[in-house]
Amino acid sequence: MNMIRCFLRQCQRFSGNYRRNRLRFDSPARKSGRKRIMPQAGRGPLLRVSVFFLLLSAILGYQVSAADPEASPRTAEIVEIEINGSINPSTVDYIKSGLTEARARNATALLILLDTPGGLLNSTKDIVKVLLNSEVPVIVYVYPRGATATSAGVFITLSAHVAAMSPGTSIGAAHPVMLGRGQQRGPAPGKPEEKKDDKSSDVMNEKIENFASSFMESIAKERGRNAEWAVDSVRKSVSVTADEALSKNVIDIISPDIPSLLSEIDGKEVKASGQSVRLETAGASTQRLEMSLRQKVVNILSTPDIAFLLLSLGSLGIFLEFYNPGMIFPGVAGLIALLVGFVSLQILPFNYAGLILLFVAMALLISEVYVTSYGLLSLAALACLVFGGLLLFDTPESDIGVSRGTIAAVAVAIGLLSVFIVYLGVKSFKVPVQGGFEGMVGQK
């Protein structure tokens, strides 16, 4: 604003001098025919205006150059994200968001703090593809102390441009876990061994194991890491500490904290998307990127325990509505829980046998209301519930499942409710009849 005011002031002064000179030039002396030399007073304002414009251009040019990030020194930035839990579709989206943010900020690298027990095979493949083709260098740091990079975490760590671990962490055990598939069981006591038709399951297990081991080997060779150990982590489920991982060339560095890590990898040359990039991480500022609301919701629904709880609570709500019609709230809440549980099943790969067992458990609980079984139907429902929970996420595409503690807690809760209902039913037989002909017996 001060510059504009100064400019207007100069223009006004120039206009005033011009008018005065014009009046002098058009004076009576000119009209009388006498020669009059026009004064040179107008050159002063013109010179001042020219100088003003030159100064204005210089100031504006300086401000534009100062606003240009490429023309001014810039502090190095690193975008930081944290993965703490199972690997699922929301994790893939989260990592892609981190890379997008890093490119937008022209950041030096993307730092991933990793602590995972494993996850979905398809999501792991998507993450590995993104990391191997990333133009932004990616640093995977198994952090903090006590963290693990298990199963899918091994794939992600080895596919990073820089793999680092904190002291007290571990990595390994990448063998695909499939409960009840292809497991050899001994014969029952006192009975000869029977031939089992497990060829299809064995073939499926072998295919998945071969794919996972070859996939892991290709990742290790691409990043120049120990391919032999990578294959053993899949086929033999080997797991090592941070010190052992460093000595076996599984990772690049061990560092106690993030500032130390950034200082130690400063100047390291990595290949990102086929081009050599020199990391400038010493003293870099880290910008934390949190999950969006949508990613957080998908991440919660991608948890097997949450999916099982939603299906179980939904079944319980429907059961209570049948037991006491007209309560409305249990039925509505149960229906909503079932619908949200089905959304979780759209995200997670599930086993149809486990889902059918859960439906059978719900049907048996509802039958308990109308059939006097003295708790036998409830016991059968609990058995179906437990086995359904164990088999629900037993698929080749996943190495995660419902925790035993969650299954036990739900089974105990439903069991106590069933015992209470049976108790009320038995107690109702001891209550004297108050109406009808039976109630008039003994009266005069």
Overview of the structural elements:
The protein is of the alpha/beta class. It folds into three domains: 2-30 and 40-67; 77-179 and 205-294, 2-enoyl-CoA Hydratase, Chain A, domain 1 (Alpha-Beta Complex), CATH 3.90.226.10; 303-429, no CATH class. It has helices at 2-25, 28-31, 43-67, 89-104, 121-132, 152-158, 199-222, 227-235, 242-247, 258-264, 293-301, 304-323, 329-347, 352-370, 376-391, 404-429, 436-439, and strands at 77-84, 109-115, 138-142, 148-150, 162-165, 170-172, 239-241, 253-254, 269-272, 275-278, 285-288. Strands 8-5-3-2-1-11 form a six-stranded parallel sheet. Strands 4-6-7 form a three-stranded mixed sheet. It has a two-stranded antiparallel ribbon with strand order 9-10. Helix 1 (2-25) runs antiparallel to helix 3 (43-67), helix 4 (89-104) runs antiparallel to helix 11 (293-301) and helix 12 (304-323) runs antiparallel to helix 13 (329-347). The protein is elongated, with a radius of gyration of 38 Å. It starts with a helix and ends in a 5-residue tail after the last helix.
Largest sheet: 6 strands, parallel
* Quaternary form: single chain
Tally of helical runs? 17
CATH architecture of the largest domain: Alpha-Beta Complex
Identify the CATH homologous superfamily of the largest domain: 2-enoyl-CoA Hydratase, Chain A, domain 1
CATH topology of the largest domain: 2-enoyl-CoA Hydratase, Chain A, domain 1
Mean pLDDT: 81
Output the structural class. Answer: alpha/beta
In total, the number of domains comes to 3
Relative strand content: 5-15%
How far is the first residue's CA from the last residue's CA?
Answer: 108 Å
Radius of gyration: 38 Å
Low-confidence stretches: 29-39, 64-74, 179-197
Instruction: Please state how the strands of the largest beta sheet are arranged side by side.
Output: 8-5-3-2-1-11
Q: What is the molecular shape?
A: elongated
Helix percentage range: 55-70%
